[in-house]
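Section 5.1 Outputs to date
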Amino acid sequence: MINNDVLRRVRYALNLNDATMLEIFALSDCTITRDELLHFLKKDNEDDFVALDNSHMSQFLDGLITYKRGKQDNPPTKKAETELDNNGILKKLRIALEFKEEDMLHTLKLADFELSKGELSAFFRQEGHKHHRKCGDQVLRNFLQGLTIHFRQPHEEEE
């Protein structure tokens, strides 16, 4: 999935304004201007669209983790992330939102997307593991859609 789409969908699902988005970037030592943010939020067919690279996407997700969960006392040493795929995005969103396996499956179900526990756990396995699976765009897209339903329409899911 295109990083810009992920950024837009997370922003919408969590109802984040520009100031909060800039604060989230800053929490991971990434300083961007409001204009840069607005360019990242544009769709790829709009004028002034700027593609969001993996580095900025990773910094946003790391900042989101800090924003939602607080700063760690002894943060682990970070390795440089050059490759950020759908699995990494899903994993960082899971950490930021403190979602358990059931929460992830429920969120996907809200978007009418059924997945088994085994299929879900395969996305979070090490890349060399025999049960590791790549997270496709459809899974990530449905998870983000489920997040929107979960956070923006909470009263409809309660019974």
